[in-house]
Amino acid sequence: MGVGGSSLRPLSPLFGADEEGRRGPTLGSVLYPSSEANSWRVAVASPLRIQVFDAHTGKAIALDGSVASALQEHAPFTAFCVAEDPGLASAGGTAGTSGEVSNQQRQLVVGCQDGTVLVFALTRGSLSGPL
Question: What CA–CA distances, in Å, run from 129 to 20, 64, 106, 126?
Answer without folding.
Answer: 30, 9, 12, 10
